Amino acid sequence: MASSSSSPKQYDAFISHRGPDVKETLAKQLYKLLQERGCRAFLDREEIEGGESITSAIENAIRSSVVQIAIFSKGYAQSSWCLEELVLMLNQQPDALFIPVFYDVQPWELRYIEKKKRKRNEKKSQYTAAFCDYQRKGRNLDNLSKWKDALASAAGISGYERSRHQDNLCEEIVSRVLEEMKRRKPLHVAKYPVGLAEQVQDFEDSFSQTVRDKVRIAGIFGLGGSGKTTLATELFNRKRLGYKASCFLSDVRDSDLRSLQSQLCKDLFLENRKFDSIAKGIGHLEHRLGTPRDWHFLIVLDDIDHRDQLDTLLPAAMLSSGSLVIITTRNQSLLAGADIFHRMKKMNFDHARTLFCSHAFCRPDPPTSYEKLVERFVGFCGGLPLALKVLGSHVYGKGEHFWELELEKVKKIQPNDIMQRLRISFDSLDREEKQIFIDIACFFNKKVKYDLKSKAITIWKASGWSNAEHALQILQDRCLLESAEHERFEMHDHLRDLGRQIVDELSPRRLWQPELLGPMEAKGFRQILAETNGGRCFHSFWDPSLGMRISFFIAEADLLWLEMNKYGVTFMNIPSWIPLRKLHCLYIWSVRELWSTFQQQLQTYTQATFQLRRLWIWSCPYLQKLPDLIEMFTHLEELDIRFSIYSTDITSLVQSLGRLSKLRSLRLVCTNLDFSEKLDLSKGNVDSSTSSRMDSLETIHLGNLLNTSKLVVSGEMCPRLRSLTVSDFRNLKEMELKHLERLNTLRVEECYNLETISGLSTLTELQVLKVENCAALKSLPTLSDLHSLQKITIFGCGQLQG
To answer: How far apart are CA 406 and CA 518, in angstroms?
Structure first.
């Protein structure tokens, strides 16, 4: 039976299930995985707040859910609650995605079989038996017909017919849920969408004149920075739900075409495909886009600059009638054969003035004393949205005298020279800010999902640019950087081009051009190290000589960042010719023996020359031990060890951590790490031979230490600790927290045998408390004294009292 939280809460997914059959297996696993991926799921009616109607809570959850999942187990039809939920899902929310999961049953079993039609000795299905039981007992007779119809409808919907023994069932279902949520979630358009409604109306006027029963191609063209992408995004948001599937391919001009082909397959057909060649991708798209013929697609190709891109991504002749393709480009000639030609117009003066003032004053109109200055700036920008945005942000918060000086500067620049206009803001940066801007334009302006921002900051600090975070804020304030959030950077393409055009004016030089990096890949990483002396280079490629993927950053002959990944195939060691003395970031997978190269180079250089700040060791099952030399990484700020086996026991590792006085983040997730039954992070247990403390440590995540029965964490050794996560300690019974007055986040998860958490009431700055799936936990101390507490999540703690 499915349910959760209170009306009028909104949910992403509703899970209908019969508790005795699947609650503790598939249903709970699915619920947990959805929650971890950021989906609010409605699972169990026990979570409904007191006094709330169960029926109304379920109806609200069903109506608000984007995706509805029904787990058809053998006893599903025995629950009238489940059958009522099924009727509601199929009848009251027809726009939601319905996913049937056939759990140890077959779809045909959902179709009610009349008793008189069964053959002799033919065994009744559980569903047939349930309906026979309803009839025999005279229960719910008025509902039998609608229940049978609902089951028959569900049986005809494509779903999942997997046994409970297949490990990837939850992942497949969650992936489908996430894809549906992504399809329905609107894309961000603009902070100040001034004049956008008029642009949309102009487009719709043309669109309404086209023939509907054909593939329609709409072209949006104009000068860079004129709002093409903004208009295409708004149209995509408005129209996407009217099509079977949709896909927005951004920055086509600067993207790998095979990756874009894969994204098309993923967004349109929920396929995770990678193509060895562009030709194979074209062949697959031609086949999939043409079948079935009644599927209508919405596809946006943003920033096309070559005909080959259209031929690669858009075999238009294969699309079903009724599909819509929107193309944005600076080159009108690429739109030959389009049904709609929409030229981006410059903004009229009123709209331009509003947009400029929104960025310059955070309001649509200027103060009286600035009115004439605003008119002059707006006139200079010539109705170009990008220029209005950049210059408005540039003068934000400045006095009138500064505005006058800036106007004198812009008068000397040719009005049609966009790059020179944008350069006004670039020239206002100091040297360090300029260097970081150029690095982003050449290297980091990529939509990489993991950890790029923090890696870049580490590299910049290694280059001597100590104010990197402040510089990023300056770039954002002046709209030279679109985003520095979510661990990635996004820069407008004209600003990127500006940085790449002027790169030769600044020292050191940058090696970023594909035409130069391509030939170097064939020579291998060793030759690249030799040929990039004096410059900066950031690149990732498969090195055939090493048989692994290498990602690296070189600055003035120093290797600052290195990633080595053989994708599950182990290798012996880091080659001795790779220089490690200036390395700041090392991310390594599948290595057998990591430390001898460091030891060899340690004999050549002094201990102080090892500059390593971030060390990630992932999936190294044959690595013999963590070294006794961990203390030689005295600058280490982040240590992340996951899914690896060591002969070093955890006690000696923990004791050595005290030497790492600059360590800020520690993550140990190591199922088979040797350890004692008591793990003690307190004074006298961490580096007992010295008086060192982990004074900089702010984050600890410990996981999968299966045999530890007692965990002690003390602020005496980590006085700055702000976040503590403990997960998958299967045998942990006692957890003791001492002197952690600064701790603001505590997460305890999957510690099934944990009985006590002592010291919780002393965490005076605790803001977030999350305790999940600690089945043996019987009590928690009073939380009334924790005045800073803002969020409490307690789930799966069945024995917890009060």
So the answer is: 42
